[in-house]
Design a protein that fits this description.
- 2 copies of one chain form a homodimer.
- By secondary structure, chain A is of the alpha+beta class.
- Chain A contains 10 helices and 12 strands.
- Chain A has 2 domains: 169 residues, Ribosomal Protein S5, domain 2, CATH 3.30.230.10; 129 residues, Alpha-Beta Plaits (2-Layer Sandwich), CATH 3.30.70.
- In chain A, the strands form 2 sheets. In chain A, strands 1, 2, 3, 4, 5, 6 and 12 form a 7-stranded mixed sheet that branches.
- In chain A, helix 6 runs antiparallel to helix 7 and helix 9 packs antiparallel against helix 10.
- The first copy, chain A, is globular.
- Chains A and B meet through strand 5, strand 6, strand 8, helix 6 and helix 7 of A and strand 5, strand 6, strand 8, helix 6 and helix 7 of B.
């Protein structure tokens, strides 16, 4: 029987309000699965993709998981090894939940595992980021790093992939609501102005610094004061129907803060307990339902595990 | 005999590379002294100023210490109480060492003490900031807060005066070199562009977040990687002769980072030990001496005490 490994990589929330391109965390679900199997034909192929409604290309060089796996295989000098990838999409793309990052993370872990685990989990990061880059054009790790490594990750420098784990206060709970409308990350990037005022910079930086210190010191009041986005959210919110109303519902149910997850349309909120998060999630999905917008909600502690092998 | 109190407020380093208008720390010296004495004449007066080469106005409404003290006296409803202030400037203004902040901090502590300490140290902050505002036009606390309260302080919001103590790793040493040339804070502010690129914003924010986490976790390597200013320093450095050379000497003697102290012309560097800081300080002052620029150097742990009553 041919050897095979099955891997799960979780969804992730990038930006985290004041941490545009710098901060991201993983949640428990949803996520993507990838199965890597030995093959008699030399080279890397994608044998099957499911759950994508036929949208994703099987061509290695055009597929996020394919590009990531291919970069890894090339680095390891294993281009001639026969590997088949089966991609099982269990989360929507263009949702702001790091779908392509999950596929990229799952791909590198699956291939690394199949080849006898030559690299550590951390060493896999650049290859996964390369895959993510194929999907949205930018080389940044704020989804890939948490999807791969778990937890909340601060990326000081996306080019150098200089990253740090941010401590997570006990009891911190994430609510994520995904309204079923589609925004492509590329489009969401394009509407963002490439300059900010010095005043906005200072305000956003002060909030990010306070958020990091608040997380490190388990100080929920600091998190509440600082979990805000004065730069990106005002520009992207108009792409998301009822964003202000959803944010208002999150805050009124006790959320520490609420903003756009990645490039949207999903939103996230952080809470200090799951009872309030449940209440917020129900009210927000109800609001969307009243407007005839289907949605899914996810409530989860910060996922500390990241990508795992079944 | 009339009652009197004598107070010392230390110099401080604001901005701290990537924390423009947000971060500051106090050093042990130099600093300003203020003596507050009961007076038979009702009202607040400045009876004497020394060490200022006759540059500072005695008029309450035009003097940093006067404005700060006056705001406090007004808040306490003690306008009719006779108080004489004697200001002993022991540090140069326009040095980037928070000279006006030290005078403002010393003034409010001295007056508060003379009046029987009606307010806590923290409650004095807004009055001291009001005094500082008189000196440089901007309402910000990144010098005043550390001068008054000691330590390293993150000001999330200058308008709300929402501030937090940043943990200080054991062994952290500050070198400050003051070249004897004058830059007025107002001028140094005026040359700063009021927009930044989104890329600069992200880079600077990532560094600030890493600096805060590195300080909180006593991780000197994180501090070394992040103690940089890609926004303000490139604009202000040209006001400071030999800035790049001084910075280079600091780095080559092992500094974790080196940038402009406040609006300059003083520079600061942080080190993980005092031996390297001494070496850096000597080389930098020697460089300035070779160029016929007088300078003073100060080597100090972060001053945790702030303003104190003798």
């Amino acid at each position: 029987m041919r050897k095979g490994v099955r891997v799960f990589a979780p969804a992730s929330v990038a930006n985290v309000a004041c941490g545009f391109d710098l901060l991201g965390f993983a949640i428990d679900g949803p996520g993507d699965e990838i199965i890597a199997r030995e093959s008699e034909q030399p080279g890397l192929v994608i044998s099957r993709i499911s759950g994508d409604n036929g949208c994703l290309p099987k061509e290695i060089g055009k597929n996020t998981a394919g590009v990531a796996a291919s970069a890894l295989v090339h680095h390891l000098g294993q281009e001639e090894t026969g590997i088949e990838l089966e991609i099982i999409k269990k989360m929507p793309f263009g949702s702001g939940l790091g779908s392509s990052a999950a596929s990229a993370a799952a791909a590198v872990v699956a291939v690394n595992e199949l080849l006898g685990r030559p690299l550590s989990r951390q060493e896999l990061l650049p290859f996964a980021v390369t895959g993510e880059q194929a999907a949205d054009g930018a080389y940044h790790a704020d989804n890939v790093a948490p999807a791969l490594l778990g937890g909340m990750i601060l990326i000081r420098d996306n080019l150098l992939l200089d990253w740090y784990r941010v401590p997570i206060p006990r009891g911190l709970i994430a609510l994520v609501v995904h309204p079923e409308i589609t925004i492509l990350t590329k489009d969401a990037r394009e509407i963002i102005r490439d300059t900010v005022s010095l005043q906005q910079h200072t305000e956003q930086s002060g909030n990010l610094a306070t958020l990091i210190l608040g997380l490190a010191q388990s100080n929920f009041e600091m998190i509440r004061k600082s979990l805000k986005d004065v730069i990106i959210e005002p520009q992207r919110a108009r792409l998301i129907p009822y964003f202000e109303e959803m944010q208002q519902l999150a805050i009124s149910t006790g959320a520490l803060g609420c903003s756009i997850s990645g490039a949207g349309p999903s939103i996230f909120a952080l809470y200090s307990n799951s009872v309030q998060a449940e209440s917020g999630g129900k009210q927000i999905t109800q609001l969307l339902e009243n407007q005839a917008i289907e949605s899914q909600m996810f409530i989860s502690a910060i996922n500390l595990k990241g990508t795992f092998v079944y």
